[in-house]
Amino acid sequence: MATRLLLISDTHVPQRARRLPEQVWRAVAEADLVLHAGDWVDLSLYEELTRRAPALLGVFGNNDGADLRRVLPEIARDTIEGVRFAMIHETGAATGRQKRMDEAFPDTDVLVFGHSHIPWDSVSPRGLRLLNPGSPTDRRRQPAHTYLTAVADNGQLTDVTLVPVLPDEVRRG
């Protein structure tokens, strides 16, 4: 049975946005599992996602305080429809990332990470898929606010799509 995934990170609520854009909440409702790669900033967003998402897997980021670190791990791992996922907020510099992550996550098929706010989709020499969804609320120097959707099914990750958040949605957030 296929599992629809929503990958988000670096939401920084309420520092960068008062709340998540409605477009993201619609994507939460359409997903079977939400993966959040850290920098929530406030426990209230974690609590709201816990209530609204069918299932949630998350990690804490460097901007998350003690309250979030009490309920979230630094690294999360789960096998979803035969795909071995790991998630961490920060992976270091882009240069050498694939090699470092191959060594750090040898028993992983897909590594989800955040921190840079820069969308990333690559495959390491070993075959590890590295995914960063960017940020739905703080694009920094990127052309758009973003998140990722994907489908895990029968040991494969398919339909990986970088979704821009519409500018009107960001302003309402």
TrEMBL record:
This is Phosphoesterase. Its cofactor is a divalent metal cation. Signal peptide: none annotated. Its EC number is 3.1.4.-. It comes from the Bacteria. The keyword Metal-binding applies. The lineage of its organism: Bacteria, Bacillati, Actinomycetota, Actinomycetes, Micrococcales. Belongs to the metallophosphoesterase superfamily. YfcE family. InterPro entries: Calcineurin-like_PHP_lpxH, Metallo-depent_PP-like, Phosphodiesterase_MJ0936/Vps29. Keywords: Metal-binding. It is an enzyme of class 3 (hydrolase). One of its GO terms (molecular function) is metal ion binding. NCBIfam families: yfcE. Residues 4-152 form the Calcineurin-like phosphoesterase domain.
